[in-house]
Design goal:
With about 400 residues, the chain is α/β, with parallel strands linked by helices. It is about 40% helix and about 25% strand. The structure holds S-adenosylmethionine and zinc ion.
């Protein structure tokens, strides 16, 4: 490290090894991860005194695109809060890469993190527009939960579940504001630890082949019921499941009626593990449901209550695609593929079949998903691929239809 850089670091009490990395359009000082791991099996980001995960670049790139899309949609200057910021990389990228961002508030409870974030803000020449704080996220957000104090956008990117921050984030979000949530606790959300999911998200998960979609729906459902308590409805404009986490982007629609409308999207997913049949049902109807599979009469398993409404907005996704084309992200190819898949599945039926799983059950060779899509469309069914699973197929064909089609193939 150059001498003046190390002297500057001393002014910020940064007493651990760091290095400069480039991500998006910024250069940023991050903990030197290699210096903190003692064995190759250790998870480096959590060993460093300040959290930094290079793998989350994709998450941050998509966050930049979503925020820019949101800003262009509302067409005014926006304020943004990142209450769990680590070294500040995400908030600093928002301030640098998203046009129309007037102010960013970055915060972390870890003093070393907020010191490093302060250093990074100064290094990127953003001191006038970016403020750094060192508080508990809920305490911080509570200060902003009043008219004329609220943020246009809040990005919650915690360790594990974002649920402990939902109430205060909703209260600190302006009418029409955008809330982004990351959840990395995939074991509860995907049904490995169902009790933890029920406890945290208020809904039962199910270990199906489309459990990642259910995870998004459980998180969206939890957000919708939390927002409804404050007379706020939500619209989920974008979501994705990538690497080891899920992410949702939702806008807040103020008013009791909007909250009622939003709650109408709550329901259950019923799944048959014998024949892969699945169906959605609304909360009240569950009492009247036979609980039997309509295709093979086996007992159905239940997931929910969860969000059975839209988890992507096609137009929002298309605008994100346009934004992506104007940038030169390092992960541009992967981002292009994800956005194209999401745009294609945005209006497709809820859940997807995984072709490998069906073929396993039927002891058949596995055809390509493209071939299956082609044949489904020829048969008059809807068919779209999904970013959730490379072998996934969203279709309105029933489990019996799928079985017949694969047998013919
Ligand atoms: C996953 S990291 C954030 C990563 C960051 N958003 C990024 O994109 O690189 C989660 C951060 O939350 C901070 N944190 C944990 N509990 C907190 C709390 N109650 N209030 C504020 N920050 C908290 C941790 O210190 C950690 O830096
Ligand atoms: Zn069945």
């Amino acid at each position: 490290m150059r001498k003046n850089q190390s002297m500057e670091k001393n002014n910020y009490n940064i007493d651990f090894p760091t290095e400069i990395v480039k991500e998006g359009k910024i250069n940023i000082s991050v903990p030197k991860l290699k210096a903190f791991i003692k064995s190759p099996s250790e998870y480096a980001p959590s060993k460093a005194p300040v959290f930094y995960n290079p793998v989350m670049e994709l998450n941050r790139d998509l966050a930049v695109l979503a925020l820019q899309t949101y800003q262009r949609t509302v067409n005014h200057e926006i304020s943004v809060c990142e209450p769990l910021a680590g070294c500040g990389i995400r908030g600093i990228r928002f301030a640098t890469e998203v046009k129309g961002v007037q102010k960013v508030l970055i915060n972390d409870i870890n003093e070393k993190a907020s010191q490093l974030a302060r250093y990074n803000v100064q290094m990127n020449g953003l001191s006038k527009r970016v403020t750094v704080k060192n508080e508990d996220a809920n305490l911080l957000l509570a200060h902003y939960g009043a008219p004329r104090k609220r943020f246009d956008a809040i990005d919650i990117d915690p360790f594990g579940s974002p649920v402990p921050y939902l109430d205060s984030a909703i209260r600190a979000l302006r009418k029409g504001g955008l809330l982004a949530l990351t959840a990395t606790d995939m074991a509860p959300l995907c049904g490995v630890h169902p009790k933890a999911c029920i406890r945290k998200y208020g809904g039962k998960p199910l270990r199906t082949e489309y459990c990642h979609e259910l995870a998004v729906r459980l998180l969206a459902g939890c957000l919708a019921t939390t927002a409804a308590k404050h007379d706020i409805g939500i619209s989920v404009v974008f979501s994705h499941s990538t690497n080891h986490y899920i992410r949702i982007y939702a806008t807040a629609n103020y008013g009791a009626k909007k909250a009622d409308e939003s709650i109408k999207n709550m329901g259950y997913m019923l799944h048959c593990f014998r024949c892969f049949h699945r169906e959605t049902t609304k909360e009240l109807l569950l009492l009247e449901h036979s609980g039997k599979c309509s295709e093979c009469n086996s007992k159905l398993n239940i997931a929910g209550p969860l969000w059975i409404g839209k988890i992507f907005d096609r137009e929002f996704c298309e605008l994100m695609q346009q934004e992506a084309k104007q940038r030169r992200f390092r992960l541009e190819e992967r981002i292009g593929k994800i956005l194209a898949l999401i745009k294609g599945e945005a209006e497709a039926p809820v859940t997807y079949y995984v072709i490998d799983k069906l073929c396993d059950l039927l002891a058949l060779p596995v055809p390509s998903v493209k071939k299956v899509a082609e044949i489904l469309r020829k048969g008059g069914f809807q068919a779209s691929l999904t970013h959730f699973n490379s072998k996934g197929m969203r279709t309105n064909a029933s489990a019996i239809n799928m079985r017949e089609l694969l047998e013919k193939l």
